[in-house]
Amino acid sequence: IRGATVQAISSPGNTVLDETVASAGGTFALDVPSQTDVFIRVRAELKQAGSPSWDVEVRDNTSETALPLGERPLYVLDGPVFNSGVADSSRDLLAATGWTGSAYTEPRAAAPFSVLDVMYRATQFAAGADPTVSIDPLDVFWSVNNTPAVGSIELGEIGTSFYRRDARSLFLLGDAALDTEEFDTHVVAHEWGHHFEEVLSRADSPGGSHTLDARLDARLAFGEGWGNAVGAMVMDDPVYFDTFVADSFGFSLESYDTAGMAGWYNEASVQSILWDLYDSAADDGDTLSLGFGPIYDILTGSQRATPAVTSVFSFLEGLKTARPADAAAIDALVSDENLDAIDNIWGDGETNDPGVTDLTPIHAELFVGGGPVNVCTTREFDGGDGNRLGIFRYLRFTVGTAGNYRIAVTTTNPPATAGQFSDPDFFVLDEGQLVLEPDLYLTGAANSESVDLIALPAGTYVIELLEAGFPNVYGYFSSSDPLSQTEMCFDVSLTQI
Fold first, then answer.
1. Which residues of 242-269 are buried (b: 16+ CB within 10 A; e: fewer)?
2. How far is it, in rounded angstroms, from Cα 338 to Cα 270?
3. Which of 203, 216, 241, 256 could form a disulfide with 220 if both were Cys (CB 3.0 to 4.6 A apart)?
4. With helix as H, strand as E and coil as C, how does 315-341 read?
C-alpha cells in the first residue's frame, strides 16, 4: 500500500502515537513508547503538501449518510493490538480481498486500497510531467452497496461509475453481484482523468452516456477519448478492460476498429490519437513518441484557455503550435482517424461531415452587422442520450470594442405538426464560461430567441446553440413531447445596439 498514511495508535485510548507515509515500496517506520499496547492503522488517503501536492481520500458514500459527502467515513485498515515491548519489531498488514473461492464472504478490505493505488499511480504520473503540480482535493466514493441502479447516492444507487464535477468527486461501483470496479484499474484511472481535466485543464463536455461506436458531440468525444487514453498512460497498458460478474469487455487503443465512424466526433478516434502521440510504438502512420510532458503542457496551457470549445481541434492546434517541427507528423497521424490537416482551434477546413444535415463548419463565424448565418441541428445520430453529434451547434464571433450587442435566432423551418413549435436556446461562452446565466434568456418563445449582451467586453466568444424541442442532456423541452422533426435550422445574427 504505497503513499498512504500509516499510524501507530494506542489501545485503549485511541491516541495517535506516531504517523508517517508509506514509501513507494509500501514500507513504513514508526516510533512508539516501549511496553505499550498499540495497533497499526493504514488510512485510505494520499496526502502530500508542498510541491508537488495532492489530497485524495477514499470514502464510503453509503455510511453515516447524515454527514455531508466529504465527511463520510474514510476507509482504514487496522492491524491487531500488540505490545511494543522493549526492542524494535516488524509489523506487516494485508488488505485481503474477501474472496474465499466462489464469493466475497469476508470483508473486502483490499477494495479501497486497490482504488487508492490507482490514484497513487495517477498522481505520480502527473508529477512526472510537472514536478511542481498541485492537484486539488479529490474524494473517491466506493461502497459494496454501489450498484448500477439509478436513484439515491446514499443508498449506493449510482447507475454507473462516474466523476461528479460539482462535487469534484469520483463514484465507483462495488456491487459484487452485478459490477464492481476496484480491480478495473483502467476504469478508475479514466475517471481520475476527468478530475485532471476539471482542476488542471478544462472540460466543456456536456457529459452523459457514450459509446465507442457513436458519433458524439465534439466536446464529449474529446473528454471521453482523453479518459480512456490517460487511463492507458497511467497503467502503462493500451488494453482497456472492464469486468462484470457475468461478462466483461475490453479493447486496445492501438487497434480498435471504429467501424466506419472514425472522426473528430468519435471518442475511439480521440483516444487512438492521444495514445499514439504518447507511446513509443511506431504504427499506422504514427512516428511520434512524445511521452506525457508535451500532452500535459497543452492540456494545462492552451487547451485551458482556448476560446473555442474543448475538442480534438483545440488540443491538436495547440500541440502543432508548440511543436512546429512535429506538425507534419501530427497531421499524418490524425489522417488515419479521418481528420483533415488541423488548420486552427475552430476546426475550419474539416471536411468529415457524416450527416444528412450539414454539420460543418464546426464553429460557424458571425460578424457584427454581417447578416444572418444559417446552421442546423439534428437528432439524426441521437438515441435518446441528448449528447450526440448535431444536437448542439457552435458559432463564434469577435467584437473589437466593448459595447452592447444583440444575438437573435430565428427558426427557418418551424414544425408543421399542430401544437408544436421550435424553441431555439443558446449559451454565450467566454473560454468555456457562461457570459450570462441560461435562465436569463431561455424564454421558451416560439420559433425565436434573442438576448442583449450589455457592456460586453472586447474579445472572442462562442455560442452554443440547441433546439430545446430535441431531447438533450440539459433536459429542455419546448412542449410536452419532443419535436417530431429530425432537423431544425436557424438564422443567427449579431448586431450592435
1. beeeeeeeebebbebebeebbbbbbbbb
2. 11
3. 216
4. HHHHHHHHCHHHHHHHHHHHHCCCCCC
Distance, CA of 443 to CA of 385 (rounded, Å): 24
Fill in the DSSP letter of residue 80: P
**How far is residue 323 CA from its own chain's centroid?**
26
CA-based nearest residue to 218, from 359, 349, 320, 319:
359
Separation of alpha carbons 294 and 319, rounded Å: 8
CA 138, 144, 146, 152 torsion-angle sign:
negative
- 314 burial via Cβ count (<10 Å: 0-12, 13-18, 19+): buried
Of 189, 186, 182, the closest CA to residue 97 belongs to 182
Query: Who's near 20: CB < 8 A, 6+ residues apart?
Result: 5, 6, 28, 29, 30
Cell 468527486: give the residue: 169
- Do the beta carbons of residue 479 and residue 444 sit within 8 Å? no
- Which grid coordinates belong to 448? 425565436
One digit per residue, pLDDT tens: the chain, 497 residues? 999 999 999 999 999 999 999 999 999 999 999 999 999 999 999 999 999 999 999 999 999 999 999 999 999 999 999 999 999 999 999 999 999 998 999 999 999 999 999 999 999 999 999 999 999 999 999 999 999 999 999 999 999 999 999 999 999 999 999 999 999 999 999 999 999 999 999 999 999 999 999 999 999 999 999 999 999 999 999 999 999 888 899 999 988 887 789 999 999 999 999 999 999 877 767 789 999 999 999 999 999 999 999 999 999 999 999 999 999 999 999 999 999 999 999 999 999 999 888 999 999 999 999 999 999 999 999 988 899 999 999 999 999 999 999 999 999 999 988 888 999 999 999 999 999 876 666 677 789 999 999 999 999 999 999 999 898 998 887 655 678 899 999 999 999 99
Reading the block at residue 217, the C-alpha cell is 458531440
> 3-state SS of the chain: helix, strand, coil percent to 5?
20, 30, 50
For residues 234 and 415, give the distance between their C-alpha atoms in angstroms, rounded to a whole number.
Answer: 49
Query: Residues 171, 156: contact at Cβ < 8 Å?
Result: no
**Residue 158 DSSP symbol:** B
The dihedrals phi and psi of 41, each to the nearest 5 degrees, come to: -120, 135
Q: Give the C-alpha separation, 76 to 109, whole Å.
A: 8
- b or e along 363-373 (b: 16 or more beta carbons within 10 Å of the residue's beta carbon)? bbebeeeeeeb
The span from the CA of 149 to the CA of 422, in Å, is: 34
Query: Which H helix or E strand runs over 462?
Result: strand 459-467
Q: How far apart are CA 201 and CA 199, in angstroms?
A: 6
